[in-house]
Amino acid sequence: MVRADFIKSKFAVFIGDLFGGVNSAVIALPQALAFGVATGFGAGAGIWGAITLCLVSGLIGSRVPMISGITGPVAIVIASIMHALNNDIGAVIFLVFAAGAIQLFLAFTKLPDIVKYVPYPVISGFMNGVGAIIIIMQLNPLMGLKPFSNTIESLKNLLTTLHCLNTDALFLGLLTLLIVFFTPKFITKVVPSQILALIICTLISMKLGLSVDKISEISAAFPEIMLPKTTLHNFVAYFHYAIMLAIVLSSETLLTGLVSNSITKQVTPPKRLLIPQGIGNMLCSFTGALPGAAATMRTVAALKTGASTKGAALISAVVLMLCLSVFSGFVSEIPLPVLAGILIKIGYDIIDFKLLKVIKYAPKDDLYVLAVVFLLTVFYNLIAAVGVGIVLAALLYAKRLADKTTIVQKEVYDKDIRNLEKVVEVNFKHKIRVVHISGQFFFGSATQLVSHFDEMLGTKILILVYDSEAALDISAIFAFEDIVVRLKSQHIKILLVIKNEEIREQLAKHDIISQVGDNHIFYDEMLAIDYAKERLQRHFKHRKNKIE
């Protein structure tokens, strides 16, 4: 019986990994093709990069599946490096090797831990900037026009090249946009809209014989192995590009790891994430494939479909190889405007609409940081944008603290309340807990605090007391929302004690008060404790009467 249950559980894990791997591969295929073309490496380089990274991740990666491959930010960095090095693919391939080696070095340091301290507006500004870059740079290819290597040139030449637009290409591009944006959800649950657009628009192009640029020949054979080469001069002159690429590759992987941790409730050390990615990217350089990172969208798709182990990454790689070998003829017929339409949808999905919806309520300091990072990302340099954003956020935060620093005489904390909290926890066997958030709750402390609410075993009612008078920044507001969602998922009743009216208004504007319930918000801790005791006693009395 025990053996039968063991086999049954293992089979269930395999089925989950199978469906998760297939689903993530279906999502990865059009993206790998599109990013491969957009970077100048070619469609095949995009697919083989995804295959290589998934294989390495599946063999030596963390237990949790990390579906890897070329992503939006990585593609933008590769394209900008290609432009800076005059499309010298050989030089770029060596930089890919160097970036992978830097990732391995980072894996054995404490530097990856810094990622979780990056302020939310910096991440949001960066992702919005990447989304905007992808959209802007694909406007010309969408109309069958020559692509440009940066956003400024793309915008500057857009109007002057409109008279040369290819109507066949524009037709396919607009049809692709209609499919990827407006396909009903009940269909996309079965077939992703990007794959749907790829198949439908390519078939239309083939049947009607439309005059559009295509991917052309794509080889299903394993790429030729070659050692990356460089000169001492190029190594010194271009090494900063390798550092920039390594930072983006590592950051994307670590952020995907954070998302994966929140879904699976398993903590994967940064070292376990970066080592397979670094080795995978070094192997990509040996085959001329595009480097990549753990892709959030594909990893989440795998997890949501049932994947639970790194076997899903192996299955994803196998599915991509099968697609390449079986459908290489069809892939070579895919029109470039179709890939441009798919990339525009990817750029749109990267944009942080969660923040944009509540931007009018966000503190001005957060908006300044977001705007600066966004503009620098789009029109200057990705890494400089993040660096400037972090420094600016730190300076503005320091100014906020300095402005609020005054000498205030406060009464000593009421000992009766502290004693009462202990009595409540002992008498009710920790069914009621009182937790104080003391000090400044801001982007630096928000991530750390949320992790403390993962497990509140045995607790029925949690009284959350926010003692600080300082207003919340956008990261803290989202962290507050995360805490509420986590506690509710554990069927814990939440009572909030918020003494500051400004903070109450902030939480109300962001719909956090409505999630908790207006009658569960208190100004005074004693009132909250009395309410919790009365509610719990009523609950026990009701259960007792029901049993009798």
Give the topology, please:
Elements: H1 2-39, H2 43-60, E1 68-69, H3 72-84, H4 89-107, H5 120-137, H6 139-142, H7 151-161, H8 167-182, H9 185-188, H10 193-208, H11 232-264, H12 270-287, E2 293-294, H13 296-305, H14 311-326, H15 328-331, H16 336-350, H17 353-357, H18 364-379, H19 382-404, H20 415-427, E3 432-437, H21 443-451, E4 461-466, H22 474-489, E5 493-498, H23 501-509, H24 512-516, E6 521-522, H25 525-547
Parallel strand pairs: 3-4, 4-5, 5-6
Antiparallel strand pairs: 1-2
Please tell me about this protein's structure:
With 548 residues, the chain is mainly α. The chain contains 25 helices and six strands. It has helices at residues 2-39, 43-60, 72-84, 89-107, 120-137, 139-142, 151-161, 167-182, 185-188, 193-208, 232-264, 270-287, 296-305, 311-326, 328-331, 336-350, 353-357, 364-379, 382-404, 415-427, 443-451, 474-489, 501-509, 512-516, 525-547, and strands at residues 68-69, 293-294, 432-437, 461-466, 493-498, 521-522. Helix 1 packs antiparallel against helix 2. The longest helix has 38 residues, at 2-39. The radius of gyration is 26 Å and the shape is globular. Residues 405-418 have low confidence and may be disordered.
